[in-house]
């Protein structure tokens, strides 16, 4: 419920901003905002992570129950020209996924809770249009790496003891879009972004025929980020 309220407040604010900024002859806010070589800011938002599984044999899918998590981080932006900006957005991302494994009758054996706390380090290229009054659409994309503080990578236990393990470091590519709104005192930018892992994140159990990991050829994160940026 709290994520729905947060999204609703953000949408109301964005709609109010849109109404104010789409006048035919708006008063230009922050006219020199994009002329600075370096810009700084922060972001707040929410995320939803998923897993994409590739199997060795078709013996049943692992079910992923997704949930909403939250994002918070900082922004450093280097102006390249009037259309291109290089951005570094280190942030903290928290999320939980519940996995349901096929072939079990005991719920404690079939379900694994995957709690993840990521420290994310993306390097992104922002491609903007010309400024249109007090707003400006943009596309954004690039590469990132994250450290999962809840990976259990160094644990000696595995799924036979109830411990689901993942690699601590993951590499992604990211792509998305958003709009910059130039308000009286700051720039507000809602955006949505898809993230896709490049490497296999699963650490296999000691038993090569493990009912949890034995049939998994690869497990890769994918997700959606919705961020509200203030600069």
UniProtKB/TrEMBL annotation:
Classification via InterPro entries: Beta-barrel_OMP_2 (IPR025665)
Signal peptide extent: 1-20
A UniProt-annotated Pfam family: OMP_b-brl_2
Keyword vocabulary terms for this entry: Signal
Domain Outer membrane protein beta-barrel: 19-201
Keyword Signal (UniProt): yes
Residue ranges that the Swiss-Prot or TrEMBL entry lists as coiled coil: none
Protein name: PorT family protein
Organism: Cerina litoralis
